[in-house]
Write a structure and sequence with these properties.
Number of domains: 4
EC number: 5.2.1.8
CATH architecture of the largest domain: Alpha Horseshoe
Distance between the termini: 90 Å
Largest sheet: 13 strands, antiparallel
Strand content: 15-25%
Keywords: Isomerase, Repeat, Rotamase, TPR repeat
CATH topology of the largest domain: Serine Threonine Protein Phosphatase 5, Tetratricopeptide repeat
Number of strands: 22
Shape: elongated
Structural class: alpha+beta
CATH superfamily of the largest domain: Tetratricopeptide repeat domain
CATH class of the largest domain: Mainly Alpha
Catalytic activity: [protein]-peptidylproline (omega=180) = [protein]-peptidylproline (omega=0)
Protein name: peptidylprolyl isomerase
Family: Belongs to the FKBP-type PPIase family.
Radius of gyration: 38 Å
Helix content: 25-40%
Length: 593
């Protein structure tokens, strides 16, 4: 429109440029306007009078495409422009310099269907130049009705994919990189020619694998279920930067074409990376109930169909007359992939698991009831969790139940430790500690037993940490024991082991010395002391070689340190220089130990 295209400097005031506050800030911080009430809505003199209340609370943003009716008048009431006369509303994008600044900043405060009167100084209107029917430096007023607006999103923030939301979606979404989506679309180029179209019921693809053109998965990741949009896609997002990115069906069309896609996200199935390495993926076919998952140690009941990638079924449970499967999670009663996935599922959830060999049957050929599983097979489980019973939490138990639960978990950990399953054993000990945590109050009669159980679990967990090379945690756990029992030989012994592994030899020697003061004949501690001496000797030898290299470079300079070493060497019957340095280092170590 001619009357809206004549712009002045104020037309280009952005959201953060010359305004003291964000547009609409006064309205947001003050009570809502009542019909007939007028208020200044920014520091540049723009005022708003509410004529008719709109629907809801949502307002458009800069960049959105709005549809409005307006009537423009001078301060004396003389009309200079109107869409009402033509009965044709104006459609434009907010904040894009298509209308005067005062209208941009006024309309972003309006709700759908609202009518308002905006009064603005010349700086927010037509400035010193004026326009047809508007003298220079004139204040003006606009009566505006916001009929509707379409949210516009710059998907990649570079203008390459512009998304107009035609119909808002549901709460579910947006989909993630791993998810499987079902979409409907029609893609056309500038002349209206259709270049691609889905079947009536749409089609499915995985977001990470892409489809049609580079723009489609990028746009889909910003959408909600049932959302309908119109995409305007520039060539580099439509046809790709090279041939491998381009859809073969596009090659007959000019590669400089702008692509327009009417797109609907019909539905999507979330895909969860259960193990974090993409080797156990769970596609949710049906959401479960509530928010609680089976978790570790739950007694679960499931039904499933297990198959190879080619669809060959090798096992069924709870279907076709077979009994459902019952097992306890995190107890290695089923393959690791199924176990880990079920622990993430809710009651009633139905999912499709894709399990790589590392979490399935590995390199072995396995004979099942219905088929043989070849070595290194990726397998699929379509599984539904029918029910589960979680272990009682500590807060649900009385003192005696907590103590018994702690003993039971500790015994389970001991058995796992004997079988070399140190990681799982450590988890059992951690679980046992949950039942006797220092945050849980116990009666006086139980305190001694509870403290003994804590010490035992700390020591056992430290033993697991040593096996798993987690030396810093081993030190922390042993220190907890020594805070309670300062002369506990097992804690001193295991902490000394950890210190030796982290090259804290002096601290290791202190723990060994204290342990031998308590138990002078302890064979294991003596053997550790011997190992420590060997480590010290090796460390001193290594240090000596380093210093020998240093001093050999200094020999030419005739330094005092070199001369001193030569004198010491004479006193030591001209032994090799490395040996002299090692002896000096050993003297120093004894001095500080």
């Amino acid at each position: 429109m001619v009357e809206f295209s004549k712009l002045n400097a104020a037309d280009f005031v952005g959201e953060d440029d010359e305004l003291d506050e964000e547009p609409g800030e006064v309205i947001e911080s003050a009570p809502p306007l009542q019909v007939g009430e007028e208020r200044e809505i920014n520091s540049l003199g723009l005022t708003k009078k509410l004529l008719k209340r709109g629907i809801g609370w949502e307002t458009p943003e800069f960049g959105d495409e709005v549809t409005v009716h307006y009537v423009g008048k001078l301060a004396d009431g003389a009309e200079f422009v109107s869409t009402r006369d033509r009965d044709k509303p104006l459609i434009f994008n907010l904040g894009q310099g298509q209308v005067i600044s005062g209208l941009n900043h006024g309309i972003i405060t309006m709700t759908k269907g609202e009518a308002a009167l905006f009064r603005m100084p010349s700086e927010l209107a037509y400035g010193v130049e004026g326009m047809d029917g508007v003298p220079p430096n004139s204040s003006v007023q606009f009566e505006v009705e916001l009929i509707s607006w379409i949210t516009v999103v710059d998907v990649c923030k570079d203008g390459g994919i512009i998304k107009k939301i035609i119909e808002k979606g549901e709460m579910m979404g947006p989909p993630g990189e791993l998810d499987e989506v079902r979409v409907k679309y029609t893609a056309t180029i500038d002349d209206g020619a259709i270049v691609a179209k889905t079947p009536e019921d749409g089609l499915e693809f995985y977001v990470k694998e892409g489809h049609l053109c580079p723009a489609l998965p990028k746009a889909v990741k910003t959408m909600k279920k049932r959302e309908k949009v119109n995409l305007v896609v520039q060539p580099h997002y439509a046809f790709g930067d090279d041939k491998k990115d381009s859809n073969t069906s596009f090659r007959s069309f000019p590669q400089s074409s702008v692509l327009r896609i009417d797109l609907e996200l019909v539905s999507f199935k979330p895909v969860v990376d259960v193990t974090g390495d993409s080797k156990v993926l769970k596609k949710i076919l049906k959401e479960g109930e509530g928010f609680v998952t089976a978790d570790e140690g739950a007694s679960v009941t499931v039904r499933y169909t297990a198959m190879l990638e080619d669809g060959t079924v090798f096992d069924k449970r709870g279907l076709d007359g077979t009994d459902a499967m019952e097992f306890v999670t995190d107890e290695e009663q089923v393959i690791a992939g199924l176990d880990r996935a079920v622990m993430t599922m809710k009651k009633g959830e139905h999912g499709l698991l894709t399990i790589k060999p590392e979490y399935g049957f590995g390199n072995a050929e396995v004979k099942q009831d219905l088929a043989i599983i070849p070595p290194i097979s990726t397998i699929l489980y379509e599984v539904e969790i029918l029910d589960f019973i979680k272990e009682k939490a500590p807060w649900e138990m009385n003192d005696q139940e907590k103590i018994e639960a702690c003993k039971r978990k500790k015994d389970e950990g001991n058995l796992l430790f004997k079988n070399g399953k140190y990681r799982r054993a450590g988890k059992k000990y951690d679980k046992a500690l949950d039942f006797v945590s220092g945050d849980i109050p116990f009666g006086d009669d139980d305190l001694k037993l509870v403290e003994s159980l804590r010490v035992s679990c700390w020591l056992n967990t430290a033993a697991c940490c040593l096996k798993l090379l987690d030396f810093h945690r081993a030190v922390n756990l042993c220190s907890k024991v020594l805070d309670v029992e300062s002369s506990n030989v097992k804690a001193l012994y295991r902490r000394a082991q950890a210190y030796m592994e982290t090259a804290d030899l002096h601290l290791a020697e202190l723990d060994i010395k204290k342990a031998l003061e308590t138990e002078p004949q302890n064979r294991e501690v003596k053997l550790l002391q011997k190992s420590l001496k060997q480590l010290r000797a090796e460390s001193n030898k290594s240090d000596a070689q380093i210093y020998t290299t240093m001093f050999s470079r200094m020999t030419k300079d005739g330094s005092t340190a070199t001369k001193r070493l030569k004198i010491d060497n004479v006193e030591n019957n001209n032994k090799p220089l490395e040996e002299v340095i090692a002896m000096e280092l050993e003297k120093t170590a004894r001095m500080y130990s």
